[in-house]
Design brief:
single chain; 253 residues; alpha/beta; TIM Barrel; two-stranded antiparallel sheet; 32% helix
Length: 253
């Protein structure tokens, strides 16, 4: 596993939950003109792609990353996989900052509907940091929306070759520069490498389920016999962390 590579990276991507990963619903022949994907047989093979990540994989991977002091970078495809991450935290299988990205490429995962994008932004915990990506020219309206809403974007030729207009071919560097221009027009500063490590809390770990839930911005675990809403005690100012509660998986939301 990548948890044991040397030199040790700051983060390693960990996929959570298996999904069909068919990018063809968001792809036209115009998008792939001049590439190997313009071959219908090749396009058919891309339509069969599956991202396979079952608990046997990701639970062990998270364990080894913790042992080696490497932060996981959660690779998610839709809101239901974010729910898996929450369950892992509530059961004590992961205790650390929650950072990652949503890969919204079409079939089997979230696609290009902006209402789906908004739901992902709405549901991510306030203490988490997520980046959002999609395919081809859909990347630009997504980038503009995410930047305006205080989120983070991704750019590069892994998922896109084009600018906002047809036949406007861009390199990865040009795409990054375009994202920077959008951000500056909207008053968003660009993070330095040190800023990014601080925002992502590289090197930070938590020791309990309760500490993780509090810092990520999730409600506390329900204690046995507790009813009603799950909230932290507060005096109207800053909330206080809840007392330690059992991490028994029967007590999750």
């Amino acid at each position: 596993m990548l948890a044991e590579i040397d030199p040790k990276p700051d983060q390693v991507t960990v996929a959570i939950g298996s999904s069909l990963y068919d990018m063809t619903p968001l792809t036209t022949l115009d998008d792939v003109q001049g590439t190997h994907m313009a071959d219908p047989k090749m396009m058919w093979q891309y339509a069969q792609m599956v991202a396979d990540a079952t608990p046997e994989f990701y639970v062990e991977h998270l364990k080894r990353l913790r042992q080696h002091g490497i932060q996981p970078y959660f690779a998610l495809a839709h809101i239901h996989q974010l729910q898996i991450v929450e369950r892992l935290i509530r059961q004590g299988l992961y205790m650390g900052p929650v950072n990652g990205f949503f890969s919204m490429v079409g079939g089997g995962v979230a696609g290009a509907n902006p209402l789906d994008w908004m739901e992902l932004i709405r549901r991510t915990p306030h203490g988490s940091v997520f980046t959002y990506q999609t395919m081809w020219r859909f990347s630009w309206p997504l980038a503009a929306m995410c930047i305006a809403l205080g989120q983070h974007t991704r750019a590069g030729i892994e998922e896109n070759l084009w600018g906002a207009r047809k036949r406007e071919r861009l390199t990865s560097v040009q795409m990054i520069e375009k994202n920077v221009r959008i951000a500056r027009e909207l008053g968003r500063d660009i993070a330095t490498g040190d800023d990014a490590r601080r925002i992502l809390k590289i090197g930070t770990w938590y020791d309990t389920v309760e500490e993780t839930l509090f810092n990520v911005g999730l409600p506390p675990n329900r204690t046995e016999g507790q009813r009603g809403f799950l909230v932290y005690d507060t005096d109207g100012q800053l909330p206080k962390a809840a007392a330690a509660a059992p991490s028994d998986p029967r007590l999750v939301l």
